[in-house]
Amino acid sequence: MFSCSIKSQIELWNKPDVNLSTLTAVNSENDKGRAFLSFLRANNVQFKTVAKNLTYLIEMQKQQPLRGFRASNSFSTFHHSYHNFEDIITTFSSWCQQYRDVCKLMKIGKTHENRPILAATIEKENSNQKKSVLIECGIHAREWIAPAICMCIFQTLLQNQQNLEHHTFHMVPLLNPDGYAFSWRSQRLWRKNRRVNARNPRCSGVDLNRNFDINFCRVGASKDACSEVYCGPFAFSEPESKALRNFILNTAKPYATFHIHSYGQLIIHPHGYTRRKPPNAKNLNALAKRAVKNIKRNRGRSYKSGQTSSILYLSSGGADDWAFAKAKASLSYTIEGRDNGNYGFMLPQNQILPACTEVWIAISTILSENKNS
Protein backbone atom coordinates (compact mmCIF):
# COMPACT_ATOMS: atom_id res chain seq x y z
CA MET A 1 0.00 0.00 0.00
CA PHE A 2 1.14 3.53 -0.76
CA SER A 3 1.44 5.37 2.52
CA CYS A 4 2.28 8.99 3.21
CA SER A 5 0.60 12.15 4.42
CA ILE A 6 -1.31 12.98 1.25
CA LYS A 7 -4.79 13.82 2.55
CA SER A 8 -4.85 17.30 1.04
CA GLN A 9 -3.37 16.23 -2.30
CA ILE A 10 -5.22 12.98 -3.16
CA GLU A 11 -8.91 12.24 -2.74
CA LEU A 12 -10.75 9.02 -3.57
CA TRP A 13 -14.25 9.77 -4.88
CA ASN A 14 -15.55 6.26 -4.30
CA LYS A 15 -14.55 3.10 -2.46
CA PRO A 16 -12.27 0.95 -4.63
CA ASP A 17 -14.30 -1.77 -6.34
CA VAL A 18 -13.43 -4.31 -9.02
CA ASN A 19 -16.70 -3.52 -10.80
CA LEU A 20 -16.41 0.26 -10.81
CA SER A 21 -13.73 2.73 -11.82
CA THR A 22 -12.22 4.51 -8.83
CA LEU A 23 -12.02 8.23 -9.51
CA THR A 24 -9.16 9.95 -7.73
CA ALA A 25 -8.46 13.68 -7.57
CA VAL A 26 -4.68 14.22 -7.59
CA ASN A 27 -2.71 17.44 -7.39
CA SER A 28 -0.05 16.56 -9.95
CA GLU A 29 1.74 19.86 -9.37
CA ASN A 30 2.57 18.80 -5.81
CA ASP A 31 5.43 16.50 -4.79
CA LYS A 32 3.05 14.12 -3.00
CA GLY A 33 0.72 13.98 -5.96
CA ARG A 34 3.59 13.23 -8.33
CA ALA A 35 4.89 10.57 -5.91
CA PHE A 36 1.49 8.89 -5.93
CA LEU A 37 1.39 8.77 -9.74
CA SER A 38 4.94 7.40 -9.80
CA PHE A 39 3.89 4.71 -7.31
CA LEU A 40 1.04 3.63 -9.60
CA ARG A 41 3.34 3.40 -12.60
CA ALA A 42 6.05 1.51 -10.68
CA ASN A 43 3.51 -1.07 -9.55
CA ASN A 44 1.89 -1.43 -12.98
CA VAL A 45 -1.45 -0.07 -11.73
CA GLN A 46 -3.44 0.93 -14.80
CA PHE A 47 -4.97 4.41 -14.76
CA LYS A 48 -6.00 7.08 -17.19
CA THR A 49 -6.43 10.83 -16.95
CA VAL A 50 -10.08 11.75 -17.53
CA ALA A 51 -9.71 15.46 -16.73
CA LYS A 52 -6.51 17.46 -16.58
CA ASN A 53 -8.07 20.51 -14.97
CA LEU A 54 -10.65 19.79 -12.28
CA THR A 55 -11.03 23.48 -11.46
CA TYR A 56 -12.12 24.14 -15.04
CA LEU A 57 -14.75 21.36 -14.84
CA ILE A 58 -16.12 22.82 -11.61
CA GLU A 59 -16.45 26.28 -13.13
CA MET A 60 -18.11 24.84 -16.23
CA GLN A 61 -20.71 23.13 -14.03
CA LYS A 62 -21.63 26.48 -12.49
CA GLN A 63 -22.10 28.28 -15.79
CA GLN A 64 -25.59 29.09 -17.00
CA PRO A 65 -26.30 28.37 -20.69
CA LEU A 66 -27.79 31.80 -21.31
CA ARG A 67 -26.21 35.07 -20.26
CA GLY A 68 -28.04 36.55 -17.32
CA PHE A 69 -30.32 33.52 -16.91
CA ARG A 70 -31.87 33.02 -13.50
CA ALA A 71 -34.31 30.42 -12.24
CA SER A 72 -37.82 31.13 -13.46
CA ASN A 73 -41.05 29.42 -14.36
CA SER A 74 -39.52 28.28 -17.65
CA PHE A 75 -39.51 24.49 -17.88
CA SER A 76 -37.70 24.66 -21.22
CA THR A 77 -34.43 26.11 -19.93
CA PHE A 78 -34.13 25.10 -16.29
CA HIS A 79 -32.79 21.60 -16.94
CA HIS A 80 -30.01 22.84 -19.20
CA SER A 81 -27.78 23.64 -16.24
CA TYR A 82 -27.10 23.06 -12.56
CA HIS A 83 -28.54 25.55 -10.09
CA ASN A 84 -27.58 26.85 -6.69
CA PHE A 85 -29.72 26.36 -3.59
CA GLU A 86 -31.62 29.64 -3.95
CA ASP A 87 -32.55 28.94 -7.58
CA ILE A 88 -33.75 25.43 -6.80
CA ILE A 89 -35.94 26.46 -3.87
CA THR A 90 -37.37 29.50 -5.67
CA THR A 91 -38.20 27.49 -8.77
CA PHE A 92 -39.58 24.51 -6.84
CA SER A 93 -41.94 26.84 -4.96
CA SER A 94 -42.92 28.72 -8.11
CA TRP A 95 -43.73 25.58 -10.10
CA CYS A 96 -45.81 24.19 -7.24
CA GLN A 97 -47.76 27.43 -7.04
CA GLN A 98 -48.25 27.40 -10.81
CA TYR A 99 -49.81 23.91 -10.54
CA ARG A 100 -51.49 24.46 -7.19
CA ASP A 101 -54.49 22.37 -8.23
CA VAL A 102 -52.30 19.26 -7.89
CA CYS A 103 -49.32 20.48 -5.84
CA LYS A 104 -49.06 21.29 -2.15
CA LEU A 105 -45.82 22.87 -0.92
CA MET A 106 -44.60 22.47 2.65
CA LYS A 107 -41.57 23.28 4.77
CA ILE A 108 -40.63 20.09 6.61
CA GLY A 109 -37.69 21.44 8.57
CA LYS A 110 -34.76 23.80 8.70
CA THR A 111 -31.03 23.20 8.78
CA HIS A 112 -28.23 24.11 11.18
CA GLU A 113 -27.68 27.26 9.08
CA ASN A 114 -31.42 28.02 9.07
CA ARG A 115 -32.12 27.10 5.47
CA PRO A 116 -35.57 25.63 4.74
CA ILE A 117 -36.04 21.99 3.77
CA LEU A 118 -38.93 21.91 1.32
CA ALA A 119 -41.18 19.11 0.14
CA ALA A 120 -44.18 18.89 -2.15
CA THR A 121 -47.10 16.51 -2.46
CA ILE A 122 -48.38 16.05 -6.00
CA GLU A 123 -51.78 14.40 -6.33
CA LYS A 124 -55.04 14.58 -8.21
CA GLU A 125 -58.18 14.86 -6.15
CA ASN A 126 -60.44 11.95 -7.07
CA SER A 127 -62.03 8.94 -5.49
CA ASN A 128 -59.43 6.42 -6.60
CA GLN A 129 -57.37 4.75 -3.91
CA LYS A 130 -53.81 5.99 -4.43
CA LYS A 131 -50.52 4.50 -3.34
CA SER A 132 -48.01 6.91 -1.85
CA VAL A 133 -44.50 7.27 -3.32
CA LEU A 134 -41.55 9.24 -1.91
CA ILE A 135 -38.68 10.55 -4.05
CA GLU A 136 -35.78 12.04 -2.08
CA CYS A 137 -32.75 13.78 -3.57
CA GLY A 138 -29.69 15.71 -2.49
CA ILE A 139 -28.75 13.97 0.76
CA HIS A 140 -25.08 14.18 -0.29
CA ALA A 141 -23.96 17.69 -1.14
CA ARG A 142 -21.54 16.96 -3.98
CA GLU A 143 -24.01 14.87 -5.98
CA TRP A 144 -25.39 17.84 -7.92
CA ILE A 145 -27.13 15.64 -10.46
CA ALA A 146 -29.49 14.29 -7.76
CA PRO A 147 -31.48 17.51 -7.10
CA ALA A 148 -31.32 18.25 -10.83
CA ILE A 149 -33.02 14.89 -11.46
CA CYS A 150 -35.62 15.59 -8.78
CA MET A 151 -36.51 18.92 -10.39
CA CYS A 152 -36.82 17.23 -13.78
CA ILE A 153 -39.12 14.51 -12.40
CA PHE A 154 -41.10 17.18 -10.55
CA GLN A 155 -41.77 18.88 -13.89
CA THR A 156 -42.77 15.54 -15.44
CA LEU A 157 -45.34 14.91 -12.71
CA LEU A 158 -46.80 18.43 -12.93
CA GLN A 159 -47.11 18.47 -16.71
CA ASN A 160 -48.04 14.83 -17.33
CA GLN A 161 -50.75 14.26 -14.78
CA GLN A 162 -51.69 10.82 -16.04
CA ASN A 163 -48.85 9.73 -13.74
CA LEU A 164 -51.07 10.76 -10.84
CA GLU A 165 -53.95 8.41 -11.64
CA HIS A 166 -52.68 5.62 -9.42
CA HIS A 167 -50.07 7.27 -7.20
CA THR A 168 -49.56 10.27 -4.96
CA PHE A 169 -45.98 11.52 -5.14
CA HIS A 170 -44.04 13.21 -2.35
CA MET A 171 -40.87 15.02 -3.45
CA VAL A 172 -37.94 16.25 -1.36
CA PRO A 173 -35.68 17.89 -3.95
CA LEU A 174 -32.79 18.90 -1.70
CA LEU A 175 -32.46 17.30 1.73
CA ASN A 176 -29.04 18.79 2.48
CA PRO A 177 -29.28 22.52 1.67
CA ASP A 178 -26.33 23.62 3.85
CA GLY A 179 -23.93 21.08 2.39
CA TYR A 180 -25.12 21.79 -1.14
CA ALA A 181 -24.68 25.57 -0.69
CA PHE A 182 -21.20 24.95 0.74
CA SER A 183 -20.30 22.82 -2.29
CA TRP A 184 -21.18 25.80 -4.50
CA ARG A 185 -19.33 28.49 -2.59
CA SER A 186 -16.30 26.66 -1.18
CA GLN A 187 -15.60 22.91 -1.51
CA ARG A 188 -17.17 21.38 -4.61
CA LEU A 189 -16.68 17.81 -3.38
CA TRP A 190 -18.18 18.32 0.09
CA ARG A 191 -20.41 15.36 1.07
CA LYS A 192 -21.84 15.92 4.56
CA ASN A 193 -24.10 18.53 6.13
CA ARG A 194 -22.61 21.49 8.02
CA ARG A 195 -22.99 20.55 11.69
CA VAL A 196 -20.36 22.20 13.89
CA ASN A 197 -18.93 19.29 15.84
CA ALA A 198 -18.28 20.60 19.35
CA ARG A 199 -15.79 17.87 20.26
CA ASN A 200 -13.77 18.43 17.10
CA PRO A 201 -14.39 21.92 15.65
CA ARG A 202 -11.83 21.28 12.89
CA CYS A 203 -14.09 18.70 11.30
CA SER A 204 -17.60 19.78 10.31
CA GLY A 205 -20.55 17.79 9.15
CA VAL A 206 -22.40 14.50 9.45
CA ASP A 207 -23.03 12.04 6.64
CA LEU A 208 -26.83 12.20 6.65
CA ASN A 209 -27.06 8.82 4.95
CA ARG A 210 -25.46 7.24 8.04
CA ASN A 211 -27.65 9.09 10.56
CA PHE A 212 -30.86 7.06 10.38
CA ASP A 213 -31.91 4.69 13.14
CA ILE A 214 -31.18 1.38 11.46
CA ASN A 215 -28.21 -0.60 12.83
CA PHE A 216 -26.80 2.83 13.65
CA CYS A 217 -23.04 3.26 13.15
CA ARG A 218 -22.32 -0.48 13.25
CA VAL A 219 -20.78 -0.97 9.81
CA GLY A 220 -19.67 1.23 6.91
CA ALA A 221 -19.89 4.30 9.12
CA SER A 222 -17.52 6.04 11.51
CA LYS A 223 -17.63 7.74 14.90
CA ASP A 224 -14.73 9.95 13.81
CA ALA A 225 -16.07 13.44 13.06
CA CYS A 226 -13.37 13.91 10.43
CA SER A 227 -14.55 10.90 8.43
CA GLU A 228 -16.58 11.30 5.24
CA VAL A 229 -19.00 8.74 6.67
CA TYR A 230 -19.29 10.20 10.20
CA CYS A 231 -22.60 8.91 11.54
CA GLY A 232 -23.17 11.73 14.03
CA PRO A 233 -23.37 11.63 17.84
CA PHE A 234 -26.62 9.62 17.79
CA ALA A 235 -29.32 8.48 15.37
CA PHE A 236 -31.44 11.35 14.03
CA SER A 237 -29.11 13.90 15.61
CA GLU A 238 -29.43 16.05 12.47
CA PRO A 239 -32.33 18.34 11.54
CA GLU A 240 -32.27 17.06 7.96
CA SER A 241 -32.62 13.37 8.83
CA LYS A 242 -35.27 14.21 11.44
CA ALA A 243 -37.18 16.25 8.86
CA LEU A 244 -37.27 13.35 6.40
CA ARG A 245 -38.22 10.89 9.15
CA ASN A 246 -41.13 13.03 10.32
CA PHE A 247 -42.30 13.72 6.77
CA ILE A 248 -42.31 10.02 5.94
CA LEU A 249 -44.05 8.91 9.14
CA ASN A 250 -46.59 11.71 9.46
CA THR A 251 -47.35 12.82 5.89
CA ALA A 252 -46.03 10.67 3.07
CA LYS A 253 -46.53 7.21 4.61
CA PRO A 254 -45.12 5.70 1.41
CA TYR A 255 -45.38 2.18 0.13
CA ALA A 256 -42.39 2.93 -2.13
CA THR A 257 -39.35 5.16 -1.62
CA PHE A 258 -36.69 6.18 -4.12
CA HIS A 259 -33.41 7.75 -2.98
CA ILE A 260 -31.51 9.42 -5.82
CA HIS A 261 -27.70 9.49 -5.77
CA SER A 262 -24.68 9.48 -8.05
CA TYR A 263 -22.73 7.81 -9.42
CA GLY A 264 -22.37 4.22 -10.67
CA GLN A 265 -25.54 3.43 -12.68
CA LEU A 266 -27.07 1.13 -10.09
CA ILE A 267 -30.58 0.26 -8.94
CA ILE A 268 -30.14 -1.28 -5.50
CA HIS A 269 -32.42 -2.34 -2.67
CA PRO A 270 -32.21 -3.31 1.05
CA HIS A 271 -30.47 -4.45 2.98
CA GLY A 272 -27.34 -2.34 3.06
CA TYR A 273 -26.34 -3.02 6.67
CA THR A 274 -26.38 -6.81 6.41
CA ARG A 275 -25.96 -9.47 3.74
CA ARG A 276 -29.14 -11.12 4.99
CA LYS A 277 -31.86 -10.91 2.36
CA PRO A 278 -35.15 -9.13 3.10
CA PRO A 279 -38.36 -11.20 3.03
CA ASN A 280 -39.45 -9.77 -0.33
CA ALA A 281 -35.98 -9.86 -1.90
CA LYS A 282 -37.22 -11.82 -4.91
CA ASN A 283 -39.78 -9.13 -5.82
CA LEU A 284 -37.39 -6.23 -5.11
CA ASN A 285 -34.74 -7.76 -7.33
CA ALA A 286 -37.14 -8.72 -10.12
CA LEU A 287 -38.53 -5.18 -10.33
CA ALA A 288 -35.03 -3.68 -10.40
CA LYS A 289 -34.00 -6.06 -13.19
CA ARG A 290 -37.00 -4.99 -15.26
CA ALA A 291 -36.03 -1.36 -14.74
CA VAL A 292 -32.46 -2.11 -15.87
CA LYS A 293 -33.82 -3.87 -18.95
CA ASN A 294 -36.09 -0.94 -19.85
CA ILE A 295 -33.28 1.59 -19.48
CA LYS A 296 -31.09 -0.47 -21.78
CA ARG A 297 -33.88 -0.92 -24.30
CA ASN A 298 -34.94 2.73 -24.38
CA ARG A 299 -31.68 4.57 -23.72
CA GLY A 300 -28.90 2.12 -24.52
CA ARG A 301 -27.34 2.72 -21.11
CA SER A 302 -26.25 -0.21 -18.94
CA TYR A 303 -27.24 -0.25 -15.26
CA LYS A 304 -26.77 -2.98 -12.67
CA SER A 305 -29.15 -4.08 -9.94
CA GLY A 306 -29.18 -6.09 -6.74
CA GLN A 307 -28.99 -5.88 -2.97
CA THR A 308 -26.96 -2.92 -1.72
CA SER A 309 -24.66 -4.95 0.53
CA SER A 310 -23.79 -7.25 -2.36
CA ILE A 311 -23.50 -4.73 -5.19
CA LEU A 312 -21.72 -2.00 -3.20
CA TYR A 313 -20.63 -2.52 0.40
CA LEU A 314 -22.02 -2.88 3.89
CA SER A 315 -23.23 0.39 5.41
CA SER A 316 -25.58 1.17 8.28
CA GLY A 317 -27.84 4.11 9.09
CA GLY A 318 -29.07 4.64 5.51
CA ALA A 319 -32.33 6.38 4.62
CA ASP A 320 -33.42 3.57 2.28
CA ASP A 321 -32.89 0.81 4.85
CA TRP A 322 -34.68 2.85 7.51
CA ALA A 323 -37.67 3.56 5.24
CA PHE A 324 -37.92 -0.13 4.43
CA ALA A 325 -37.43 -1.57 7.93
CA LYS A 326 -38.81 1.11 10.24
CA ALA A 327 -41.30 3.08 8.10
CA LYS A 328 -42.54 -0.20 6.56
CA ALA A 329 -42.22 0.80 2.90
CA SER A 330 -42.84 -2.30 0.78
CA LEU A 331 -40.41 -1.09 -1.86
CA SER A 332 -37.26 0.94 -1.28
CA TYR A 333 -34.56 1.67 -3.83
CA THR A 334 -31.43 3.73 -4.09
CA ILE A 335 -30.79 4.75 -7.68
CA GLU A 336 -27.21 5.71 -8.42
CA GLY A 337 -27.46 7.66 -11.65
CA ARG A 338 -24.92 8.50 -14.32
CA ASP A 339 -22.15 7.79 -14.92
CA ASN A 340 -19.75 4.84 -14.50
CA GLY A 341 -16.78 6.96 -13.52
CA ASN A 342 -15.72 9.00 -16.55
CA TYR A 343 -16.93 12.18 -14.84
CA GLY A 344 -18.22 10.92 -11.50
CA PHE A 345 -19.61 13.79 -9.45
CA MET A 346 -18.65 16.25 -12.22
CA LEU A 347 -21.28 15.08 -14.70
CA PRO A 348 -21.57 17.69 -17.50
CA GLN A 349 -24.71 19.78 -17.78
CA ASN A 350 -25.66 18.28 -21.13
CA GLN A 351 -26.22 14.93 -19.37
CA ILE A 352 -28.83 16.24 -16.91
CA LEU A 353 -31.85 15.42 -19.07
CA PRO A 354 -30.57 11.98 -20.19
CA ALA A 355 -29.77 11.12 -16.54
CA CYS A 356 -33.24 12.23 -15.49
CA THR A 357 -34.87 10.17 -18.22
CA GLU A 358 -33.07 7.03 -17.08
CA VAL A 359 -34.04 7.50 -13.44
CA TRP A 360 -37.67 8.17 -14.38
CA ILE A 361 -37.73 5.03 -16.54
CA ALA A 362 -36.53 3.09 -13.50
CA ILE A 363 -39.10 4.59 -11.12
CA SER A 364 -42.05 4.30 -13.52
CA THR A 365 -41.10 0.74 -14.47
CA ILE A 366 -40.91 -0.39 -10.85
CA LEU A 367 -44.24 1.23 -9.96
CA SER A 368 -46.12 -0.05 -13.01
CA GLU A 369 -44.63 -3.56 -12.90
CA ASN A 370 -45.36 -3.86 -9.18
CA LYS A 371 -48.97 -2.77 -9.79
CA ASN A 372 -49.35 -5.40 -12.50
CA SER A 373 -47.67 -8.23 -10.60
Automatic annotation (TrEMBL):
Pfam families: Peptidase_M14 (PF00246)
PROSITE patterns, alphabetized: CARBOXYPEPT_ZN_1, PEPTIDASE_M14
Active site, UniProt feature: 336
Sorted UniProt keywords: Carboxypeptidase, Hydrolase, Metal-binding, Metalloprotease, Protease, Signal, Zinc
Gene3D superfamilies: Zn peptidases (3.40.630.10)
CC annotations in GO: extracellular space
Superkingdom of the source species: Eukaryota
Domain Peptidase M14 intervals: 81-370
GO BP field: proteolysis
Keyword Lipoprotein: no
Family matches, as InterPro entries: CARBOXYPEPT_ZN_1 (IPR057246), Peptidase_M14 (IPR000834)
GO MF terms, alphabetically ordered: metallocarboxypeptidase activity; zinc ion binding
Cofactor(s) annotated in UniProt: Zn(2+)
Family, per entry: Belongs to the peptidase M14 family.
The name this protein goes by in its record: Carboxypeptidase B-like protein
